[in-house]
Structure formats: structure tokens, C-alpha cells
Amino acid sequence: MTAYDVLLYHGVYDTGLQTRPRNRSGKHIPSDRFQAEMRHLAANRAVVSMADIADAYAGRKTLPAGAVAVTFDDGFLNNYQSAWPILEEFGVPATIYIATGYIGTGRMIWSDQLETSILDTDQSHLDIAVAGQSFYYPLDSSAGRVAAFLDIKTRCKALPNEDKDRVVRAVTDTLGHGSSGDHPLYAFMNWDQVREMNRSPLISFGAHTIDHISLAKVPLPEMHRQIDESVSHLARMIDEPSPFFSYPEGQAGDYNDSVIAYLKQRGFDHCPTAIEGSNTIEDVGPFHIRRIMVGFEGRPYPFASVEELGYKA
Ligand SMILES: [Zn+2]
Fold first, then answer.
1. What is the mean pLDDT of residues 168-172?
2. What pTM did the predictor assign?
3. How far is the CA of 188 from the centre of ligand 1 (A)?
């Protein structure tokens, strides 16, 4: 059996940045923690790239024992500012999957938009009816605003994509837009930064749709468009086709056989999910690659304890 792991990060912020009450999900981790994790990884595991993993599936290469690849989803600016120097310091390769419609636009991910709208509002309550549901929340305390954000986010995740967008729009129209898209936890890279990083032999980019939508939850033509346009936009901007793509959201309900068939038709030979777990080449198919999320919902680095890492939270 050839076992391997893929780590999934989202963001790394400079240690010392005051993040509370934002970043409740832990999607972004402090740079000293990321540094301790990459130091440990480089010293104790065989770091490989996603290209190495694709080659192993294709039978072109065998993976070393203890193989681990590092990935980032979405394309946050802090990947460029805070994570990249650390990856270079330890020689760790990484693949960054970017939602192309956010790159260099000032747009925010819907959950970030919801977060800043609710946390930064000066309204005392929210009382709206949208998408056939009513949303009533007191917002006159910090705890109330956080609770409202978490509950609305959960409710949005259960909705079809257009209804989710309708709810987010209604909330921001009512409460205000909050911080701008250049906040260090919300900002995305621009294309110059993508190109600059792409010149490093350690860094590769993949597409992650245009609008960061669940590919299994939109009509077929839209699924095709989200793949086609993100893939071609990225290729145009980095002057080469990329063999990498990852499914947004990445859970079992976010991709399906028709998504996989379309990716294959477009020439892709593998695609990581966000389903939690380790892999073997023999038992996990190349379009079902599991990843170990780090940071999100308090998830730890999986290969060493905080004490072993010497990192103090
Ligand atoms: Zn994503």
C-alpha cells in the first residue's frame, strides 16, 4: 500500500494581528504556528507536490514513505504575504487553488461578507424575510452578533446557491457591508502576486471555480462554465495550463460523477476533496483525494502535538 496525506490550509496571518471576534472558524492560523508546522513537516515527513501524487496515480512515479503534500484553498492575500516566505524557508512545495472571480477584485467570500456585515453593524437587531424564511436576531451585544452570524451561516449552507446569495444580499443591504475587501482576513491576492509566486519552483496554482460555488448544486451548464472559465482564466494569467483543480466546499454533496466526468473531459487526472482523512493510492480514487484540514474548526496539525511543535498558542 502507498499511503499519503494532503494537508488543507486556508490562511496564515501575521502573529500579533488582533483577529477576535473574527476568524471564529480558525480558517486562518497565526504565522508562528504555521512556521512550527512547516519546520516539523520538512524535518519528519517526505514532502511531495500534488504533481507527484498525480504521477503516482498514473504509475509514472512512486511516492516515498510518509508522503505529505501541502495545499491551500481559495487564494487569500495572506498566502502570499505570510505563508509563502515560510514555505520557501523550509523548502515545502504547495499547491494553491484559487477562486478566479475573487482574484484582484476586492470581492469577499460570502461567509466573510456575512461575518463582517453582522459583526460590524450598529443596528440593534436583524428582522428580515427572504428566500421563504424569516431571520430574526438581536444584535445589541457582541455575543448576540457572533451567535447570529454562526446561525445564519449554518442556515445558508443548507440553501440552494441562489437562495444563499439572496440571504447574504438581504443581510448586507439591511445591516451594511462592514469592512472592505482589503481586510487582512478577507483579502484575496491579485494576479501580479499569483504570477510572482508561480515563478517559484515550490508553488503551483490550480483553479477552484470562478465564484467558489458547490459544483453539484448548480445546473449543468453553470457547472461547466464555472470549471471552463476558471481554468482558462488561470491559464491565461500564468501563461500555461494548470493540471490542478479542487472542488469548492469539497464535501460528498459538493461534487458528483458528472463533475468528475467533466473534469476528466477537460484533461484533469485528479482532484482533491475537503473530505477529512488519509489516502492510499490503491484505495482512494484520484478524484476523491481526502485532505486533512488544519486550523478550521480548531483542527490541529495532525503529525505532532503543540508541545512537540514548540508552538505556544
Ligand atoms: Zn474553497
1. 96
2. 0.94
3. 12
